[in-house]
Write a structure and sequence with these properties.
Length: 377
């Protein structure tokens, strides 16, 4: 829910600590704004309205009180009459009151912040399909983790998960540089399992089959938006085997819609509120569970592609071609092979592929390896 100061102002009026004059109302496109903070990406039209029937609006945009000490109008204040529409930019702090003769209304303040402030806020862990713990069902043990990868403290107040799960961060929620915040499906069960608490609990549940997750500002500016999947080439261990989906980098810079962004947690139940030991500091994602060399060439290609690999024993292997969103386009190899070196040549020019990036996914008993392939018509 949005956070409001209205009830506090009414209490002061009721207790005769303010004159019975209500402060100006803020609106955008005819809709009343009750938030104390608005996050915007460009210019924003703000309308100030006087609903009292008496007095006039006095406002400032420099963060100062329009009422000067002693009760006069501040030299930096502007007269808004009964209604005034102004255009504000990020970084603006608007303060407004109603003045009627010598009486003033309470102060109504609103600040506009830049949505670019959240470029350092990253999703770093998703435990979407845990395993049951004794009598506690898996759906009670889900969580999503965010990390501030920047160097300045971030204020998350008013940010909301609007797709997949639902939750709005309350006023005063901040995350320090390199710090984490975890939102759980059941904070009490989360504490029992991990030994520490989170104050944030969402409604709804994460889909075991993958879905869209969105985090937005109170003005519907997108902060984080991604779709995860539970099928190859995405890691499958987080889908009911007890592991979580983690960012492949400790301070990720890529797109969480891409499989390369993700890896599998090192330990069962994941690593909430900490960098996972399976994450790396470099930009090299981890896909294989142990060392395995898969060669895909030529790359780029416009016709055929060679796939080379060495098996340490006899085993069944699968090689699939996927689009960049993780949809299987063709099973290239699905057979039992003997120990030793293998070369598979695959013709691509008869698959009606468009020019672009594809994924070659190798799967065996002990390995899951993904390679990018660029196809050019």
């Amino acid at each position: 829910m949005p956070f409001s100061i209205g009830y506090r102002l009414q209490q002061l009026i009721d207790e005769k600590l303010f004159a019975d004059i209500k402060p100006p109302v803020y609106k955008n496109n005819g809709v009343e704004i009750i938030d104390e903070k608005i996050i915007i990406s460009g210019e924003y039209n703000l309308t100030l309205e006087n609903k009292n029937g008496i007095g006039t609006i006095a406002y400032t945009i420099d963060g100062s009180d329009p009422r000067a000490i002693g009760g006069a109008i501040s030299s930096s204040a502007a007269n808004g009459g009964n209604s005034k529409t102004i255009t504000v930019k990020s970084g603006t702090r608007v303060m407004a009151r109603i003045k009627n003769s010598t009486n003033w209304s309470p102060l109504h303040e609103i600040v506009f912040e830049n949505s670019a402030l959240f470029t350092d806020l990253k999703v770093t862990e998703l435990h979407y399909h845990p395993v049951d713990q004794d009598t506690v069902g898996a759906k009670q043990l889900e969580f999503i983790e965010l990390k501030n990868t920047g160097t300045s403290t971030l204020d998350l107040s008013g940010l909301s998960f609007t797709d997949g799960i639902e939750y709005t961060f309350p006023a005063g929620t901040t995350v320090a540089p390199k710090g984490f915040v975890v939102v759980a499906s059941n904070p009490e069960e989360f504490q029992r399992l991990y030994g520490f608490t989170t104050d944030f609990g969402y409604s709804g549940s994460l889909s075991n089959g993958g879905e869209l997750i969105e985090l937005e500002t109170s003005t519907n500016e997108t902060v984080i938006s991604f779709t995860f999947y539970d099928t190859i080439p995405w890691p499958t261990e987080p889908d009911g085997d007890g592991y979580s989906l983690i960012a492949a980098q400790t301070n990720p810079t890529g797109d969480p819609n891409m499989v390369e962004y993700w890896a599998v947690s090192k330990y069962l139940n994941g690593s909430p509120m900490a960098d996972d030991e399976a994450s790396v500091i470099t930009n090299t994602p981890v896909f294989a569970t142990k060392s395995f060399n898969l060669e895909v060439y030529p790359n780029p290609t416009s016709s055929s592609v060679n796939i080379d690999f060495l098996l340490e024993g006899d085993e069944k292997i699968e090689i699939g071609l996927y689009d960049i969103n993780g949809r299987l386009l063709s099973t290239l190899v699905n057979e039992f092979l003997t120990e030793g070196y293998h070369n598979q040549t695959v013709q691509l020019n008869n698959m009606n592929l468009k020019s672009g990036i594809y994924l070659v996914v190798f799967k065996s008993r002990d390995n899951l390896v993904t390679k990018k392939l660029i196809y050019q018509q």
